[in-house]
Design a protein that fits this description.
6 helices, mainly alpha, 115 residues, disordered N terminus
Length: 115
């Protein structure tokens, strides 16, 4: 069964090229490319299809958004503690880097329900 990406991706723009820049980059700048890669291959939409029915209501974050933040947390590797999500939730730069609105960031209080 071939999978096709039918759900819209929340990435702001497709990657058009990688070039040198004189801009100051944050240490987690690679997460933006990682998020766009996840969107490009359609894995987030596929996970939404597979696990979307597990939600009892439409409250909270979409399943694709939860997986995106979890994948970024694991790839980032700054901390292995779930409580680190509380610090990330307050970091507007991190939220912008993974192309998520600050209001959509997960917290450690919410994660045990998901996991």
């Amino acid at each position: 069964m071939a999978y096709t990406n039918t759900a819209p991706c929340h990435c702001s723009q497709p990657i058009s090229g990688i070039e040198k820049t004189s801009d100051t980059l944050i240490s987690r700048a690679g997460l933006t490319l990682f998020v766009r890669y996840l969107c490009g291959i359609g894995i987030l939409a596929h996970l939404e299809t597979l696990f979307g029915d597990l939600r009892k209501s439409r409250k909270g974050q979409p399943i694709g958004e939860i997986f995106k933040q979890l994948f970024c947390f694991f790839v980032d590797g700054s901390s292995r503690h779930v409580s680190f999500f509380d610090q990330l939730q307050k970091d507007a730069g991190y939220a912008a880097g993974i192309e998520t609105t600050p209001e959509s960031m997960l917290s450690s209080r919410w994660l045990p329900i998901v996991l």
